[in-house]
Specification:
The protein has about 160 residues and is an all-beta fold. The chain contains no helices and 13 strands. The radius of gyration is 16 Å and the shape is globular.
Length: about 160
């Protein structure tokens, strides 16, 4: 997974970051539509970017994906077209020089959407459906950072 020029805001400071890493998923049956759809269980998500003034930002899957909400659906038989929607709750760790690491959680999961001609993806672009607020787990009403976009490509990079 590669997300270049990702708009990220820490407090009032806006930065553009280049994330690298990956996601691993397991395919499960989708009981609501077993013919045209499967559920995707996230079994590993981790991406890291370097901050312009030193330090890193790392996004990691928050917990075990027990309720697979991500889906892959067939939208057209010929030529084949698929719609993938990934739902990823995550933790953000911001490490800057001369300060303690800041660990934040996503208020709502990151939702990435893509239209594919094959699965697994091969260089296809995934987009963030809406910005994700990141909060301190001890003060969930206070937004500390915001992920404004996540234009990521997967596979065949």
């Amino acid at each position: 997974m590669l997300a270049i020029d990702t708009p990220f805001q820490i407090g009032t400071r806006r930065v553009s970051l280049d994330f690298r890493g990956g996601i691993r998923q397991r395919v499960d049956v989708d009981p609501s539509d077993p013919v045209n759809s499967v559920r995707l269980r996230n079994v590993g998500f981790r991406v890291t970017a370097e901050l312009p003034d030193g330090g890193t930002v790392t996004f990691e899957q928050s917990d075990v994906d027990t309720d697979a909400q991500s889906t892959l659906r067939v939208t057209q038989q010929f030529p084949p077209r698929f719609e993938e929607r990934d739902v990823i709750p995550f933790t953000a760790t911001i490490e800057e020089p001369d300060s303690e690491p800041l660990v934040l959680v996503s208020r709502e999961p990151m939702v990435l959407h893509a239209t594919l001609t094959q699965y697994p993806a091969r260089g296809d672009l995934y987009q963030l459906e809406k910005p994700v607020d990141l909060v301190d787990p001890e003060h969930p009403d206070q937004v500390v950072a915001v992920l404004h976009g996540f234009p990521s490509k997967r596979g065949g990079l």
